[in-house]
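Working notes for the structural subgroup meeting. M.R. asked for a predicted model of this chain before we commit to crystallization trials. I am recording the input and output together here so anyone reviewing the notebook later can reproduce the run.

Input as submitted:
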Amino acid sequence: MAQITKAFIIISSSDSYPAGGKTKMEPNSCNLKKSTVYSSLQCQRPPHGICRRDFIVWLAKVAFLGQGMAHTGCSVNEGHSLVANSIVRVAFQTDKEIVHNIVPAPLKANDGGLMYAFIGRFNTYGFMYHQAGLGVPVSCELRESGSLQMVNGSYFDKWYDNNQQSQSLGKKVWGYPKQWAEVIYNESKRSIDGAVMHDGKQIAEFNFVPSGKEASQRMHQHERHFNFIGQRHFNFKERGKDRFLTVTRWTNVKEREHTFGEAKVQPFGIDVRKVLSATHTVTDWVVPDQPNLTIRNL
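Returned structure, recorded in token form:
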């Protein structure tokens, strides 16, 4: 309880600073400023978009659960670092009509019936959680470098998360369509197996077996369409009567491992006509503190 008490002392003052803070907090909705530094909780900053009261509750929960806050050396302006994330991604082809029915305007669906399912273990703020979802390669006309042009990215029809803080922030700040679910991710040298349980039912299943072979040219071609990490993410969120398109791009991508293999997948009720490629990656990246672009009332 000592740690929780200190967390309240730090944040409840009007002149506050997160514990262990080597990085200065810029004033935001939480109005956090520099003050006493404690080393008992190594938390550099609150997640973006959480007000002071919510951050107190969030930090106290983490301290109470003993999950640690060993997220060090991170500047508030650099975004949220995710480290050594282990992800299986399965690219597949389904009916073109299914893809077109999923993708909302103003996004443009691909004409090849291309989709991908992912599941993995994610690491941030010193604790680990599992996520899974369903993405679609799309394009959208945006103004970049002073002119309108079609840019490529991913739209996520499904996204399940077994961490309530991650779920809440992902939906509130960036617009990811996150829902809570039990996401099971079991990794061994021989295979990676996963499943998603929602409302007492299994809604997705994954099995990935590393091939140990060099990736074929066909797989590399498909990888350009299913770049889950380095490309733009298109999402939608609502506030009152306003609807926003958010465009978010993860940066500082460092790929530690990239393995191709064979996969079987039952992805969220979608009919899989053909598996195109399956990969397992271990990757670091940074999510910006807010979307790179937000467009109202599309």
